[in-house]
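Task card 7
Instruction: Convert sequence to C-alpha cells.
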Amino acid sequence: MFSQIKFFIQKLQSSKYIKKGRCKMCGACCRNILLFSDKNLPVMTEEQFEKIKEWDKHFRSFYISGKSETGALLFTCYALGDNNKCKLYLFRGLGCRQYPHKNTKFLINGGKMLEGCGFYFEPDKKFEEYLK
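Output:
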C-alpha cells in the first residue's frame, strides 16, 4: 500500500513536459512512422499489418516504406504530397492533429524529435527548481 501511495505522489510531482515550436512542413512525421499493435508493440511483419488494417480502418492510410534498425516496419502516409504537405489536411485524423504526442517515458529515456522537425519538448521546470 505504501509503495502505491509513494508512486502516486512521485507521479504528481514528476516533471511535466511542454510542447514548443511549430511545424516546418518537412513531411518527416508522415514518413518513417512506427505503428503499434493492440499489444502496444511495433508492427514487425506484413501479415501483422494486414490483420491490423482489418481491425482498424485508419491503418489503411499507410503503406510500408522500410524497416527500422530493430526490424520494425516503417510506414508512410498516403496523403503526403510531393510538396511535403498533407493532401487531406482539413480531414486529417486526430493523431495527426495532435502530433507530436507527449510521451513522458519516451522523453525521459532520451527520445528525440525527428530530424528537421520544428517541434520540441522542454520540462516545465529546470532540474534545480525541483531540488528546492
